[in-house]
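Below is how a single chain appears once it has passed through the pipeline. First comes the sequence as given, then the structure the pipeline wrote out for it. We keep one example in the README because the format questions we get most often are answered faster by looking than by reading.
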Amino acid sequence: MIERLVVKNFALIDDLEVEFGSGLNVLTGETGTGKSLVIDALEVVLGRRASPDYVRAGAGRAYLELVCGLQGAAPVPPEVKNAGIETEDGLLILSRELFGNGRNLYRVGGRTVPLAIYRETGRHLVDFHGQGEQQSLLRESRHGELLDRIGGQELRSALGRLEILFRDWTSTRRLLEQYRQDAMERARRLDVLGLQIQEIDRAGLEFGEEESLREERNFLVNAEQIARLADESYQVLYGAEDFGPAAVVQIGRALENLRALGRVCQEARETVPVLESVLTQVQETARDLLALRERARFDPERLDLVEARLALIEGLKRKYGTTLDEVLRYREQAAVEREHLLGSEGEIAGLAERITALGGEWEAVADEVSAGRRRTAAALETGVTLELRELELGELEFRVEFQPLEGPNGRGREQAVFLFSPNPGEPLRPLARIASGGELSRTMLALKKLLAEVDETPTLIFDEVDAGVGGRAIQAVAEKLWAVGRKHQVVCVTHAPQIAGHADRHLQIAKETFGGKTRTVVRNLDEEGRLEEMARMLAGGREITDPARKHAFEMRKLAAASFGRSANN
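Resulting structure:
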């Protein structure tokens, strides 16, 4: 759930921090105090598109932060798991910086992430229900999604399998079409691949051969110098008097002296093994130099062969890769492609069988999805009817109709459409043709109430769900919001004192002037403050009277009495 919202330099807000609690949180305040800005801040910190104009005048950037608790049953968003982001003490922090030049910076758990991951993370934590989503209930394309969400994990699991089958079916069909391309084009490609493979095979290439050839060419080109230097080094270590006494002779003499000295001196005796090792290494080095001198012979024929071999490799690299290893890998890939093309007839038959099999599997899972949807639809019709009756819309008849879809596809056999009849005996019609704003609000709240039973989203935000609702219906709306708050954290902006009276936490948004500057503040009201704020709401902006305060007190008593009833709804 949301624990804290931090806002800095956002529009008219310079520095604001809001603490939220569990259950139903309401935000109230007079017109112009900044309620809409707090809601805007919540939407923007959850990833909504934001204009640079949101950056407060005179500030270089705006900063928004949302601290969410993941304790209890709240799920860790899959985007967070997949990105390897660590949560700290059961908290996950989403932060967003908006710069005046239009640039945005998104962080989850302190790590910078792309907007897509940031937005999906927020979507798993918070479900925002503003006026835009209320209007989305009028779009029939959203009805199927709502029905499937209410259907629970079993239906969603079947839908997941259906989507996987459809992706496999689609990709297999695409591959089959590739295999059925023009026969002349396939033959031309086979000829090209055959010539390329033959050219590479004739070269008889081996991995690492180029490096070995370059080393050999370097040795052959410098053979005379290598022989001369190796010979001179050998003579110094082991040979002719032209270079003075040989090193092995000198070391041997020193070794004999040390051995004699060692018979009378412990310190000298300890150095004998060291010098013996040196003598052995010098002798081995001399033998290696002698062998190198004998091997270093200029061989023009061999050099020509090496140069020709390297030229051949360079020619192949220009065609098939920047390195010898890439040339050999190209040959392997060409051989695989050629085998696929040669066996295309068999592949075509196999792919056709695979498409038929996937189609059969899709049909079976689509039947499972359809059955689940119809069970959900029957339960939804009953549930929405009961909820609407309690929300003073008892005359509104609700039905789920299914419109067929052509398949296979990723959604199943049908698309759900919600139909309503405003009065008994009148035909069922789309909601857009019969519903007022208040009816829309209550219908969406009824769906949200049922969805709350299966939805894993920890926090639901309602922006003025009471719009267009009055009379006895507003009391029912208040009870529904409180009931949803038993399973989810609910944040609700409201002008209705009945809803405020049901809140577990009442936050008042106000403006105060300090040091010649006006700023927006949020106060967590105690019981006395709540009654005063509810009395202000009842007074409609006029002077708060004692009857208004008494009415607010009675509303709180009524809310307390209704808690037991709402808990059972």
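Residues 202-338 form one domain.

See the next section for the split statistics.
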